[in-house]
Structures are given as structure tokens and as C-alpha cells.
Design brief:
The longest helix is centred in the first third of the chain and has 11 residues. The chain is globular, with a radius of gyration of 18 Å. With 318 residues, the protein is of the alpha+beta class. It is built from 6 helices and 14 strands. 47% of the residues are buried. The strands form 5 sheets. It has a 4-stranded mixed β-sheet. A 3-stranded antiparallel β-sheet has the order 1-4-14, with no helix packed on it. The chain has one domain: paralog of FGE (formylglycine-generating enzyme), CATH 3.90.1580.
Length: 318
């Protein structure tokens, strides 16, 4: 199986670009939903991994000592309820709405829609669905009414940036994201340790069974889970592994030499794709295995799908 096919499982790219002006969003002078954020003291930590569990082209290693300043981070991914508040306050229209479609996993679609949609040739479980937006995540006649506490999905990196501006926040750097995800543990595979299911308990929402044919949902969820599901990590953060991929601010680079040094690195100055971290409910060890803390992938800033969301951070004012 070709590497680009494996990457498409995680980062299914739209492949076209919008020609439109960016919507004007007023920067908030106050941090929205600040009571849902956690203060992290920053400091030095060991980033990356020397293990060979991922894909060589992902650039997970080598392990290096990184320093980050203190910052605030959302306790959980931005929810549908929070994103709805943003849209109601600003009138913002997401990029998937402007395109008219987004990517949906095939098993979530009713037969009458599945027979009509276009599938990605290399990854036929991904379907381009007209009318699949953040508020109707499986397309027309679907709803988020019973998922207001779930992470918002079908949001592009540009959409996430707009939300952050309104909320007086920003997207985390990749270094900040990994520091937060590790929860104070050093060089562990997951936010809670090295075992995926300690004491046979599930600590994240990922794929169980045979991908992509059968999800046994042993963790309790077929699609997204509520944003505050499963045990918190050592910093009190939810779902830093699994559930939905989370956008970071950095452009993607495989080389650590272009990622901004060892103190508050911000990634390369330019690029083609933006970093995604954390894995999703579709990740499985046999195919993706990117729900590990050190795992990374990327996507174009205007791409969206039913397994991609974000969480925000904010600077600590001195």
C-alpha cells in the first residue's frame, strides 16, 4: 500500500482552492470561554520519538529537548455549541459551506446518498458529500442537535483561525500541543502512559475491529464522542488522543532543522500544509497508528472532513 494512501486516511485533501476574500472577524479583547481553559506552566520537555512506530516521512523524530513558555489551553476541543455561538455572533460562513461539500466517512451515509456520492479512488471510504457542513455533519437531513457537546468538525484551518480571532485566542504551535498532550509524562506513547488499554479500559476514541470494514465500537463510540469523554491527562485535558484531529498553527516540515529552534518553535515560515495532531475515531494500528503523542500529519488549510476539529490556546500576559 502506498504511503500517500495511508496519509489520506488521516488527511483527506480537498484538492481545490477557493477564490474569495477572507471574512472580516473582529479580534476579541476578552478571552471567550476562559473558564474552560487550563494554565500550563511551560518549561522543557522531550519532544518527538526515536521509536519506529510511525511513517518515516512524518518526521516524528529524533527526540529533542524543547522549551515552551507558559500558556492557557482549552480543556477540550471546541464544541458544536461553542462554534455555534461564534457563528451567531459573527455571521461566519465556513469554507465547506462555500465549497458546498466536505468529506464524510462512508459508513455514516444512508444507502440512497452513498449510491450517489463520489468516492476518493485511493481511499474509497471517503466520500465527497454535498451539503456536509459543521451543522449537518453527514450531509442533508443530519443534525448536531444531540451532539452540541461533541467537537465541531468540517472546519478548515482557516475556519479555526477565524474562531480563534473572535475568541481572543490562537491555534497552538505543534510544540505547545505536544507538551500539553504529554500531560507531564516523559516520552510515553500516549497521554496516560505506554499501554493503550490499561486494565482493559479505553482511554480514547479510536477504531476497534478491522479498518475500514468493521468498527466494533468497544470504546463506546462509532463517530465523535463528547468533547469531555474518557479520563483527563495529567494536565486535566480531554481527548488529546483520538476523537478528532486537531489543527496546529505550524506549517508542516519533515526536517526538525526548519521548525524554529528549541525555544518556542513555531515551524517553518511557509509551506503547503498545516500540522494536524492527535488522531481521530478512525485511527487504527493496522493502518494509521497516529493517535500516539509523537505522531503527526498535515493537510491543506482549506481542507475539511468529519474527523477534523481544533482546540485553542492563549498567551499568558505578564
Amino acid at each position: 500500500m502506498k504511503m500517500e494512501q495511508k496519509m489520506s486516511c488521516c488527511a483527506i485533501k480537498r484538492g481545490t482552492s477557493l477564490e474569495h476574500k477572507t471574512q472580516e472577524i473582529t479580534t476579541s479583547t476578552e478571552i471567550q470561554f476562559k473558564d474552560k481553559m487550563v494554565y500550563l506552566p511551560g518549561g522543557e520537555f522531550l519532544m518527538g520519538t526515536n521509536e519506529k512506530e510511525g511513517f518515516p516521512t512524518d518526521g516524528e523524530g529524533p527526540v529533542r529537548k524543547i522549551k515552551v513558555d507558559p500558556f492557557l489551553i482549552d480543556r477540550h476541543a471546541v464544541t458544536n455549541a461553542e462554534f455555534k455561538e461564534f457563528v451567531q455572533a459573527t455571521g461566519y460562513v465556513t469554507e465547506s459551506e462555500k465549497f458546498g461539500w466536505s468529506f464524510v466517512f462512508y459508513s455514516f451515509l444512508p444507502p440512497q446518498i452513498l449510491s450517489q456520492v463520489k468516492r476518493v479512488t485511493s481511499t474509497p471510504w471517503w466520500c465527497g458529500v454535498n451539503g456536509a457542513f459543521w451543522y449537518q455533519p453527514e450531509g442533508p437531513n443530519s443534525t448536531i442537535d444531540d451532539r452540541m457537546d461533541h467537537p465541531v468538525v468540517h472546519v478548515t484551518w482557516n475556519d479555526a483561525q477565524a474562531f480563534c480571532k473572535w475568541a481572543g485566542k490562537r491555534l497552538p504551535t505543534e510544540a505547545e500541543w505536544e507538551y500539553a498532550a504529554r500531560g507531564g509524562l516523559e516520552q510515553k506513547r500516549y497521554p496516560w502512559g505506554d499501554e493503550l488499554t490499561p486494565n482493559n479500559e479505553h482511554y480514547c476514541n479510536i477504531w476497534q475491529g478491522k479498518f475500514p470494514e468493521k468498527n466494533t465500537t468497544e470504546d463506546g463510540f462509532k463517530g465523535t464522542a463528547p468533547a469531555m469523554s474518557f479520563p483527563e491527562n495529567g494536565f486535566g485535558l480531554y481527548n488529546m488522543s483520538g476523537n478528532v484531529w486537531e489543527w496546529c498553527s505550524d506549517w508542516f516540515s519533515r526536517s526538525i532543522h526548519s521548525r524554529g529552534g528549541r525555544t518556542n518553535p513555531k515551524g517553518p515560515a511557509k509551506g503547503e500544509t498545516k500540522i494536524m495532531r492527535g488522531g481521530s475515531y478512525l485511527c487504527h494500528v493496522s493502518y494509521c497508528n497516529r493517535y500516539r503523542v509523537a505522531a503527526r500529519t498535515s493537510n491543506t488549510p482549506d481542507s475539511s472532513s468529519g474527523h477534523l476539529g481544533f482546540r485553542c490556546v492563549a498567551d499568558v500576559l505578564s
